[in-house]
Design brief:
Radius of gyration: 17 Å
Mean pLDDT: 90
CATH class: Alpha Beta
Strand order of the largest sheet: 3-2-1-4-5-7-6
CATH topology: Rossmann fold
CATH architecture: 3-Layer(aba) Sandwich
Structural class: alpha/beta
Number of helices: 8
Low-confidence stretches: 229-242
Distance between the termini: 17 Å
CATH superfamily: Vaccinia Virus protein VP39
Length: 242
């Protein structure tokens, strides 16, 4: 399903314009200029309405936090959340995960978050999964050595698939759990995460740490015009209310 269009989207986006980076490719290698005292650069793919984005940035004020979201109707809510919280260490990109090497220089990112991405259950769409080996190789191009990917999903099949993909792309797995909140809420939740946790759906999580590889694997770009993910909500997910 597609996300419902937000009323007054354009003026709402304009009011939050200070958070939006309109020329991310020109920022490659220079992101820390936005926060010269930043200890690290963290990147989130597909931030949705930004609950996780805003709360994580607020809890880590010394970090420069960048969030990518292709659905403007979701991103405007995320930016409004950050504005209401008075955050100055978070910025947004309206872009595609497949373009990350255009947006960031090698080793510029220390941590990458992938939360509840589209599982693309059909085998013929496997290459579109954001935890496919090829995408994990893509991320190697912007992560520093020892950089981390933090991955969460409610989809058990996608999680088990991903556990095989990380090592193939040169990541050491840690913090692997198939029931993250079994003993109480652990960390910041997304809107979807809270909804599915309340329904009794276990949340899967792992961390992949970039290890040296020789030779370094080669990323194979998707076909021209083929987006990393369509501008729709993940399959099987309903849009949470504002």
């Amino acid at each position: 399903m597609r996300m419902r269009k937000k009323p007054n989207l354009v003026p709402r986006m304009e009011r939050c314009a200070r958070f939006l980076i309109s020329d991310p490719a020109e920022r490659a290698g220079k992101w820390r200029e936005l926060k010269p005292d930043a200890d690290a650069v963290w990147l989130e793919l597909g931030c949705g309405k930004g609950r996780f984005t805003a709360q994580t940035a607020a809890r880590n004020p010394s970090v420069l936090y960048i969030a990518i979201e292709r659905v403007a109707d979701a991103m405007v809510v995320a930016m409004e959340r950050c504005a209401e919280m008075g955050l100055d260490n978070v910025f947004f990109i309206d872009g595609d995960a497949a373009m990350l090497r255009e947006y960031f220089a090698p080793g510029e990112v220390q941590r990458l978050f992938i939360n509840f991405c589209d599982p693309w259950p059909s085998n013929r769409h496997a290459r579109r999964r954001l935890t496919h080996e090829n995408f994990l190789v893509l991320y190697r191009g912007i992560l520093q050595d020892g950089g981390e990917i933090h991955f969460k999903t409610d989809n058990r099949d996608l999680f088990e698939y991903s556990l095989f993909q990380f090592p193939k792309a040169g990541y050491e797995l840690s913090e692997v759990t198939r029931n993250l909140h079994e003993n109480g809420i652990c960390g910041v939740m997304t809107d979807y995460e809270e909804k599915f946790h309340n329904m009794g759906t276990p949340i899967n999580r792992c961390v992949g740490t970039k290890q040296p590889m020789d030779p370094e694997p080669v990323y194979i770009p998707l076909q021209t015009g083929q987006p990393a993910a369509e501008e729709e909500l993940p399959q099987g997910h309903e849009e949470p209310q504002d």
